[in-house]
Amino acid sequence: MYTTDKNYVFHNGAFLKAKNNGASFYSQALHYGYAAFEGIRAYGTEHGIVLFKAKDHFKRFFRSAEALDLQIPYSYEELIEASRELLHRNGLTDAYVRPLVYGGDQMGLVPSQEAQVLIVAFKWKKYYRAPHLNLHISPYRRLKQPAFHGDGKISGYYVNAILATKKAKAKGFDEALMLDDEGYIAQGPSSNFFFEKNEKLYTPEKGNILPGITRKTVIKLAKEADIEVVEGKFKPEDLEGIKGAFLTGTAVEIIPISSIDGKPMTEEYEHTMGKSLSNSYRRLVNLQEPEVVYF
Ligand code: PMP
Question: Ligand 1: residues whose CB is within 6 Å?
Fold first, then answer.
């Protein structure tokens, strides 16, 4: 509808044919963020390449797409196979795999029903340069139902996360810690939040967060190590005197927090639950377990 063989667009200083072989200039994803995505890590291990928790990630991919009524025209198995082939063609072992399903050409706000699927893979060794993070409690709040589908990975929503990160960095911090619309601690812009206090591990409950796959894995590892995990609603004042804290996510893995709004942790990271869970996580991503897909 928007492109013929004859029309042009202005793009980065050049006039280009509107019709091209890449992503469309008229996609609802480009203009309005109407898209959903996933982030999966591949680890090169002695058993082969592991696509860590691939099943959980692709399940969430289909769920996020469903929230937008975008029908992914491939099966779970086809997406796994495409990811494998993509890693192979790019000569990648340790890598980040990013599937994206995005809306077709539509300048209006009626949702595009035409789902396009893209997968990219690239080396992403560490998400953060700093080994420990100084967090800033962000003025940007996370939206939840009914304001938004905060439990899916919907592209447009990430503008909120980018702005929170930008604000934290502008103030000299490494990353933001976001509250929900009621002022309860929610999570990092692309990660979940845990803190240690009174020999227990605490994390915001589901409902005002994106329920991360790494979060679920860390809770399981903690329980296996006889650590009591409390999921609940916490206010910034509950962080007074905490021993340790960390963020979890596929890209960030487990990253320690050294301070929150200038207040340091009361224990050395080396002696915290975060450190021992990080060691267990590292062992897990490199060893076989049933939910992992090996290539
Ligand atoms: N929250 C948000 C908003 C995210 O984008 C991510 C990264 N996927 C996470 C949390 C962590 O989720 P996971 O552990 O599944 O990567």
Answer: 39, 153, 187, 190-192, 210, 212-215, 248-250
